[in-house]
Design brief:
Blueprint lengths: L22 H30 L11 H42 L10 H11 L28
Helix pairs in contact: 1-2, 2-3
Length: 154
């Protein structure tokens, strides 16, 4: 028997039963989420982009601390810019995945249900949640070091 301190929280011990999803609500969620992104996020992305990526003058090379600061500052600006675009792309991808699952399973009968692999496949197609590399212990996506040019397709 497993000692009490080694068992999981009481509220999680019965986990493993069937997970049900309301396909109609998933379709509504997808439509509302996509509309929200298009209406209230996308129009402001370029404005935010222009605010966080100003062209700063180059410091004199003899001022090593300032040169180092500007280098770090530019890196943070670029990372922030990338995240701004990623939020829009990821949220839109999530809505697209929910819409795909809804479309594929909306007319299915009560005995037919989507498998987790079907949902993961729908997410993978959007690029919203890229799977970790095979054999990897790390589930977070590593940065590939490419520069963001300010384009959502960069």
């Amino acid at each position: 028997m497993i000692p009490e301190e080694d068992r999981g929280p009481a509220w999680l011990r019965d986990y493993g039963g069937a997970i049900e999803a309301d396909i109609q609500r998933m379709e509504e969620f997808a439509q509302q989420l996509l509309a929200e992104v298009q209406k209230n996020y996308v129009p402001h992305m370029e404005e935010v982009q222009s605010d966080i990526l100003p062209n700063l003058p180059e410091p004199h090379e003899s001022f090593a601390e300032l040169v180092s600061f500007f280098k770090a500052h530019r890196t943070v600006q670029q990372d922030t810019s990338t995240r701004v675009w990623d939020v829009g792309d990821g949220t839109g991808g999530l809505a697209t995945a929910a819409e795909t699952v809804s479309r594929n399973y909306g007319q299915a009968d009560a005995f037919s249900r989507a498998r987790v692999s079907d949902v993961e496949s729908a997410l993978d197609e959007t690029g919203a949640a890229a799977p970790p590399p095979p054999g990897s212990q790390n589930t977070t996506t590593q940065q590939d070091g490419t520069a963001n040019t300010g384009s959502p397709n960069a």
